[in-house]
């Protein structure tokens, strides 16, 4: 039996990375163009379900194909210690790991570099010298190096981010100071990925200011024609067919949201499979869209709403009353019974968090597709959690 080609599981590589070609080329060129190439330090932001984890997987695949070593991490407690362990020779066993917040870095700041003690090491390893020692290994050839990807960066502690940023900064400077030709220099490439609000917090830290020079990319919705073509191609390659009109109907329903693309594709393909049909028809598209909306609410809308404070929830609940149409800020003020300044404040906050976006003069709309449907389905469950916060 043919396998469903769509992969809506978080982090699972989909058949097509729709609309990410430019970003993938930026990363590949950064590895190919030698020391100092833009893109070797990259900050990627996007809402949940925008394919950040998938993109990091693709970056590591590209790096491995070029014989770079790769390390994949997700931000959580002990991040720096795990990086040191991953960089250390296999015959060195960690005895004790601890962050040391009082290491001084001349010309930068007093900051944690993440110390870890090893049984066979005369001196404690820091992330900085762990990177340098690994780069000295014969296993890493000329012009190659180490790629580190860090997912869910917004969950990282400030101490860990400072440790990583300062270590990479010093290692890069040490490499630049050698007499080796740029094409032969070994290097470090690091990609941070996280939710939109983490970007300003990361680059504005007084110790990690060098990250302001990093390549920043915010993932956007895929173009609807590209989604339609992706449906046509993926379905065809799986041994089934779908008509142009049905593919466009399904594409419009996704609003170009990458995770929704995978959900709609998965469920409409599965609907045809249950009928033992090789043709995905209008009925399958309708079934797929219905099931996808339910799954999308649980996987994307619920965690997105969890991060919004009560006043923000009230703002969003008032927006949801307009259905799929954009909302007028004046109407939100009337429904919420709040002042215009309150509306302007939370409008700015929610736009900054990429929950909503401007849709014309005095108009706003949800960034996440079907978010209004989700809120309306919750009804009083959302309203009950809203309290006034001036």
Automatic annotation (TrEMBL):
Transmembrane segments: none annotated. Pfam families: AAA_16 (PF13191). Residues 17-171 form the Orc1-like AAA ATPase domain. The keyword Ribosomal protein does not apply. SUPFAM superfamilies: P-loop containing nucleoside triphosphate hydrolases (SSF52540). Gene3D superfamilies: P-loop containing nucleotide triphosphate hydrolases (3.40.50.300). GO terms for molecular function: ATP binding. Keywords: ATP-binding, Nucleotide-binding. This is ATP-binding protein. It comes from Bifidobacterium vespertilionis.
